[in-house]
Amino acid sequence: MSTRTMHLSTLSSGYGFTVLAAFSWSLMTLFAKAMLAAGLSPMEISFWRAAIGGLCFIASAASLRTLRIPPARALLFILWGVLSVAGLFYVFLTSIQYNGAAMGEILLYTAPVWVAVFSRYISGENVSRRKWTAIAMALCGVAFVCFSGGSIRGGFSPVGILCGLASGLCYAMQYPFFKYWQKHHRTETIYAYMEIGGVLAMLPFVRFHTPYAPQTWSMVVLMAFFTGYLAFWAYGQGLRRLPQVHVAVLCNLEPILGTAWACWFFGENFTPAGWAGFSLILVAVLILATERARHAG
Questions:
Q1: CA-based angle 51:53:59, to the nearest 5?
Q2: 171 found inside a domain
Q3: pTM above the 0.70 mark?
Q4: How far is 187 from 61, CA to CA, in rounded Å?
Q5: Is the residue at 14 inside a domain?
Q6: In terms of residue numbers, what domain contains 172?
Q7: Is residue 218 part of a domain?
Q8: Cα–Cα distance between 116 and 286 in angstroms, integer?
Q9: 63, 89, 128, 164: which sits with the fewest CB atoms below 10 Å from its CB?
């Protein structure tokens, strides 16, 4: 096989893995709505997502013989998982509970805006006028989405909005951490310890409020496998094969698909102002992603 053929094969598999990650993450809107309706709390759903997903990562890392790492590094990954796994999973589910799955997805995808702000005020990177324009667009989009009343009847929920924005912040914090440590450890190893941290953080607070029917257990296991394991694993595989900007752009499929599932299967919908905000946020994220490519070039 020629070098060019191998390169094309690597790229195509990278695109496939990234699309798989976006698709798998988008399914969280379906699982979340169904499990909340079955009586599970956001904390219960988040706990199972991390616990079962973490077991899958532990089994994968053990099979690859990459689970054993220096104790100090394992502790670092566990502590980071407290915020970027337990925090992300819980506030995202709470946002969905209060404001609907479609709105939760959109607010989650303010993450690239947080990354751009971090790059300016923490890393000291120069932020171009194009980036500031994208950030302003995203903030306007958030305002449109929030004050339009959300994607379910019941209207404006400050708690849901704050949790949605917090989910974007927690998601953004995963990016630089994973980007750095992926150079030293496999995806399976990093997320095995991070999800252990998430489980340990949630364990004292989780309460199981309702008996689980077999159908509920099926949803819990499928949700954890697709959104707590497969999505993160595929995301890591995509990053190993593609430039980061390509992964960032393709991951924009997640809020589009997640919103589509919520509107299609659960009848959620935005007002015209909400759809305008949705579009502004997606365009802003696309600008921020392509800006990284221009800067790298």
A1: 100
A2: yes
A3: yes
A4: 9
A5: no
A6: 38-296
A7: yes
A8: 12
A9: 63
